[in-house]
Each structure stands twice: as structure tokens, then as C-alpha cells.
Amino acid sequence: MADVNRGNRPLSPHLTIYRPQWTSVTSILTRITGNAILVSGILIVWWLLSAATSEAAFNRANWVLTSWLGDLVMLLSVWGLWYHFLAGLRHLYWDTGRGLDLPTAEKLAYGCVGGSVVLTLLTIVIV
Questions:
Q1: Cα(16)–Cα(108) distance, rounded to whole angstroms?
Q2: Which tens digit of pLDDT belongs to each residue from 83-112?
Q3: Containing H/E element for 37?
Q4: Burial (Cβ within 10 Å: 0-12, 13-18, ≥19) of residue 61
Q5: Per-domain residue ranges for the chain?
Q6: CATH class (in words) of the domain with range 22-126
Q7: Model's pTM, two decimal places?
Q8: How far apart are CA 83 and CA 118, in angstroms?
Q9: Contacts (Cβ under 8 Å, ≥6 apart) of 95
Q10: Within 13 Å, how many C-alpha atoms sit on residue 69's CB side?
Q11: Which 3 state secondary structure label does DSSP give 21?
Q12: Which tens digits make up the pLDDT trace of 13-28?
């Protein structure tokens, strides 16, 4: 077996001293919004199934989704949908081999976050 010297090797930087970059934060946000979209989709399916089941089931589901917490979840879901869509377009652009340099990648990260906020506000105003 190989002799592994573990005493002289440097440790990886810990999260407390690591400065997050926009590209890493937006990558993590893409994963979070993807999972959040799944959860909100399950809530909407629950609402539709309860409407097909009985009036009592629908009233319960409708109360949950139209409460302040349900409104907040649906508002964040709209933002998550827009953000995830824009992040997908960014990845499609990267798949062509363009925009991979750090300044462009950071601008695209700002664009994803800012664009999703603007599109969410437009969606709220229009709908």
C-alpha cells in the first residue's frame, strides 16, 4: 500500500474564509430554484386534485394556497421560474463556447438575478 503522508498537506479553505463569487452563487441558486419549482408544482397539483375530489378538500387546499404563506410561496415560485429560465438560457449560451471568461460570466450572473426580479415584477403587474 502506498505511504500517504497526511501531516504536511494543506487543508482545503473553509467556508468561513472563502469569498463566494457571483458565478458560484448563481449556480447554487439554479439548483435551489429547480427543487423549489418541483415543490410548488406539487402544491399546484394538490390544489387541482382537491378541486376534483370534494368541496371540503378544495376549501382546505385553497385556504393554504391563498393564505399569506401560500401567496409568498407562489410569489417566490414565480421568481424561481423566471430565474431558472434565465439561468437555463445562460447555460445554453455557455454550451456554444461563448461567455466563459470571468467578466462575461459575472455579467451574465447579474443579468440572471436582475432579469428575474424585473420579469417577476412585470408578471405580478400584468397578471
A1: 26
A2: 999 999 999 999 999 999 999 999 999 999
A3: helix 22-53
A4: buried
A5: 22-126
A6: mainly alpha
A7: 0.82
A8: 10
A9: none
A10: 5
A11: coil
A12: 666 677 788 888 999 9
